From TrEMBL, chain A:
One GO MF term: transmembrane transporter activity
Organism expressing this protein natively: Sulfitobacter marinus
GO CC terms of this entry: plasma membrane
Function of the molecule: Part of the tripartite ATP-independent periplasmic (TRAP) transport system.
Subunit structure comment from the entry: The complex comprises the extracytoplasmic solute receptor protein and the two transmembrane proteins.
Membrane topology note: Multi-pass membrane protein
Recorded superkingdom: Bacteria
Source taxonomy: Bacteria, Pseudomonadati, Pseudomonadota, Alphaproteobacteria, Rhodobacterales
Protein's UniProt name: TRAP transporter small permease protein
Principal subcellular localisation of the protein: membrane
Sorted UniProt keywords: Cell inner membrane, Cell membrane, Membrane, Transmembrane, Transmembrane helix, Transport
UniProtKB/TrEMBL annotation, chain B:
Protein name per the record: TRAP transporter large permease protein
Organism phylogeny: Bacteria, Pseudomonadati, Pseudomonadota, Alphaproteobacteria, Rhodobacterales
Compartmental location: Cell inner membrane
Pfam families, A to Z: DctM
Single GO term (MF): transmembrane transporter activity
Species of provenance: Sulfitobacter marinus
Family: Belongs to the TRAP transporter large permease family.
Sequence ranges assigned to domain TRAP C4-dicarboxylate transport system permease DctM subunit in this UniProt record: 7-440
One cellular component term from this protein's GO annotations in UniProt: plasma membrane
Top-rank taxon, per record: Bacteria
Topology term for the membrane: Multi-pass membrane protein
Amino acid sequence: MSSGYQPTSALGRIVHEFEETAIAVILGLMTIITFINVVLRYGFNTGLIWGLEAVTFLFAWLVLFGMSYAVKVTAHLGVDAVINLFSSPVRRVIALVASVICIVYAMLLLKGAWDYWAPFAGLDATSGRWFPTGFENSRDQAWYSTVDIPMPEWLRFIEASMNQGEAYEKLPRFIPYVMLPIGMALLLFRFIQAAVRIFTGVSTSLIVSHEAEDDIEAVKHMNAGD
Amino acid sequence: MEVLILFLMIVGLMLLGLPIAVSLGFSSIVFLLVLSDSSLASIAQTFFQAMAGHYTLLAIPFFVLASSFMSTGGVAKRIIRFSIALVGHFPGGLAIAGVFACMMFAALSGSSPATVVAIGSIVIAGMRETGYTKEFAAGVIANAGTLGILIPPSIVMVVYASATDVSVGRMFLAGVIPGLLAGFMLMLTIYIMARVKNLPRGEWRGWAEVFASGREAGWGLMLIVIILGGIYGGIFTPTEAAAVAAVYAFFIACFVYRDMGPLHVKGEGRNLSLLRKPAALVSVFFHRDVRDTLFEAGKLTVTLMFIIANALILKHVLTDEQIPQQISAAMLSAGFGPIMFLIIVNVILLIGGQFMEPSGLLIIVAPLVFPIAMELGIDPIHLGIIMVVNMEIGMITPPVGLNLFVTSGVANMPMMKVVKAALPFTAVLFVFLIMVTYIPIISTWLPTLMMGPEVLVR
Amino acid sequence: ACDDGEILIKFSHVTNTDKHPKGIAATLLAERVNAEMNGKACMEVFPNSTLYNDDQVLEAMLQGDVQMAAPSLSKFEQFTKQFRIFDLPFMFKNINAVDEFQSSETGQAMKASMERRGLSGLQFWHNGMKQMSANKPLNLPSDADGLKFRVQASDVIKAQMEAIGVSPQPMAFSEVYGALQTGVVDGQENTWSNIYGQKFFEVQDGITETNHGVLDYMVVTSTDWWNSLPDDVRTQLATILEEVTTTRNAAVGEVDAEARQAILDAGSNIIELDAATRQIWVDAMMPVWAEFTGDVGQENIDAAQAINAKH
Ligand code: NA
Ligand code: NA
C-alpha cells in the first residue's frame, strides 16, 4: 500500500506483510475491545474491567512497533523546505549527518528502554549516563503487576522463575513493557538501514513533508493537466 | 537562557531534515542528561506513558480510522452530490457546495488535510469542468478544508483537552458554532464574489434530487448524530465515541455503500447484496480492503503519535526544569493583560505552525500558556478554540502550511499559486480569528447551554 | 529554584496546591523544608499530575527520578496486600479510628512493610471518609442495584460494589465529571472534599452519608534514597514531615465539614442514615471481608475492630 517502498527479497516481502498486518491487527483489536465495552456497559450493565488498561497497552504497542516501520517506508514527518534549497551533493551530506543523529537518538532511547524494562523482568539495568558501560545490580521488580489485566492460567509457569514461586494475581508489567526495548531496537535497526540507503544513494531523505503525501499521490491524476 | 538553546536546537535539527519527532526527542534528551539528574529510563517511561497514560489521546487512532473508512468507503462523493443538489444553483454554486461539503466531511473527520484530500480531489476537478479557474477552486478548498479541525470531532481539540485536562466533550461543543460561522463566512464571501464576477452557477435539479442524494449521504452523515448524540446522551465517553464512530464507518463502508470489502464489485458492475453473500459477515474481517484501511489508519496514527510522544518528552523536561512557572512569572511581571497575552499566543502559534504538525505544537505550547491564561481569567475552552483557529490559519499561510501542501498536491499546481489563490479567503479567516479571540461567547455559549457553566477543578 | 550543593527533593502529586488536603499539606511541607533546611535540602513540588500520575510515580521513585509522593492507599495493594484493609467497607468507624489504627503498632509496621520492594512509608495523610453519590437518591443499598459506578482500580472496591448490585466501571479520572453528567456512569464514591472539589455534587441527585470507607494517602520515599541521606538531613526532614502531618491531619475534619456544608449550601441533597438504615448498608457490604481476610490478616482486622470499639 505505501508508496515508494518496495521490498525486494522474499524475506523482505514476508517481513513487510507481517509489519503491515500487525499494525492493522493491533488497531483493530483496540477498536473492537473499546466498542464491546460500550455495548456491554450500555446494553448489559457490565463490562470487561481489564478492557481499558489492555487498550492503552495496545495503543503503546501500536506506536512502539509501528515507528520503525515508518522509518523503513520514510513516512515520518519533517520539514524539507530548507534542505531543498541545497544542491544534491550538499543535501546528501546533510542527510547523512541527520541519519547519524537519528542513530544516536535511537541508541539513547534503546538504553533508556532497557534500563526501564530490565528491573521489571528481574534483569539488570545498564550503568553509565549516556551510553551503557556495563550492568549494575538492579532491584528485582518482577513482582510488579498491571492493575486490571488478569493473569492467564497458561502463563503461570513463569511464576517459578520470575516471581520466586509466588502467584501473580494480575499480568506482570514486564509483559506489556517488553515492547519498549523491542520497539527501540527495531527503530535503531531501521535508522541504520536508512543511513546506509542514503550513503549508497538509494534514497535521499529521512522524511516526508506532510501526513497526506501518499493519499495525494493517489488522487493527483484527477487534476492533471490544465 | 538554556531554554532558548533548547528551542533553537529543535528548530535547527528540523531544518536539517530530521523527522520532527526526533528533533524534539533528541534535543530534550540531551537537555535532560546535561542539566538534570533524571535518567534515560525516565525518558523511556514518558515515551510509553504517552500512549498508555493518556487515555484521551486514544481518540486519535479511532477518529483517524473512522475517517479512513469514510474516505475509502465512498462517503465523500455522496456528500458532494448532496451539497450540489442543495446549494449548487446559487451564484458560485459549486464553490459554495464545495465549502458545504467540506463542513460536512469535517463533521466526520478529525483532521484538516484529510478533509482537503477527500473533498478537494473531487470538487476541484468538478469546478474546473463547470468553468471555474483552477486557482479559485484550490483557494476555496484549501481554506474550507481547515474546518476539519474546528468542526468536531477534531484531533487537535483532543490533544488540547489532553494537555490541559479540560473536557473533550466541552471542546467539541465549543467548536460547533465557530465552525458553522466560519463556513458561513466563507460561503458568503464566495456568494458576493460570484455576484460581482458573475461566476458560473449550477441548475436546480429539484427536491427529488435533494432527497435522493440526501438519503444516500445520510448514512454517512448519521455519524454526526451518533457521535454527538452518544456523547451528550450518556451512552459513551468522547474517547469511546471515536471507537464507535470507527465501527459504524466500517459497517457503512462495507455493508451499506459497499465501495469496499467483500460485497464490492470493481468496475461498472453492481455491488453484491448481503443476502446473496451472507458469508461476507465473517469474511469482511479478513478482507484485504479492511486490512489495508486499518493499516493506513494505523500508520498515520503512528506518525502522529511518534511526534506527540516526543513532544511529551519535551514537556516532561520543561516541567522537570519548572520552565512554565518561569515563563509565566516573567510574562505576568511584565504586566501583560489578556489582550496582549492573546496576541502573543497568536503570534507564537502562527510562527510555530510554520514548522510543526498542529497536535505536536499544541502539546508543547498549551502547558506553557495555559497557567498564564488561567491567571488572567481567560476561559480555558475559549483559549482552546483560539488555538485551534490559529492552527487553521497556520495551515494556509506561507511559507509553510499543511493545507497548502496538500492542496497543491491535490490540485496539481505550484504552492505559491495556491497561496495567492487562497489569500482572499485567508483574509476572511483572519477576520474570523479576531472575532473568535475577542468575542468569547461564540465559543462558550453552546457548551455552557448544554453542559452548564465551566468547572475549573484545579 | 534550588542552589548548588542542596539535596534536591522532588515531590510529585496529582491535586491542586491550595484547596485539596493533600495539595495543602505538600505545599506546607515544601515551604517549611525550604525555609528551615536552606543550604542543606530543597523541595520542588510538582502538582496536578504535571510530572507523574499516581500509577507512574511509584515506578519513577524506584528508578530514582522522583523522591517523594503521596499516592492513595489503594495504590500500595500491589506492594503489600495488607493495605487492602483500608479499602474494606465499614472497617473503620470514623477518621479518628483510622488515625488511631495508623498510629498503632500495626499501622506503623505497615509503613515499613514495603521496604523489601524498595519503598519506605513515612507518614499517613488523611483525606476523609467516603460517601456514595448517584443520579438518584440512595436510601438503601437496594436503591443502587443495577447502577453503574466509577471506581478506583482496586479489587476490594470492585467486590464491595458488586455486593450491592452495582456494576463497577474503570474510568480515567478526567472523564468522570462528564460521564456522571451525561449518565455514562450513574454514580461514584468519594470523600466530601473530593465531591466538592471536583464538583461532582452538581451532576448527582443525592449523596448518601455512608462513611463506608476511607480515602487516605501515604507519603512514601525510595528506601535506597532515604538511607543514602546524611543522618542529620534525614532526621530533620522526618521531623518536619511529622509536624506537618500532625497539623494537617488535625485540620482535615474541618476541611471535610466545610466541603460538606458548601455542598449543602449549593442546594444538594445529602441523605443522612439513622443507625438502623446504616446497619442495612453494613450487612450488605460486610460479606466482602471474608473474601480478603487472607490478604489482610485476621489479626489486623481484630486490631481495627478493637480500636473502633473505643470511638
Ligand atoms: Na472535524
Ligand atoms: Na503557515
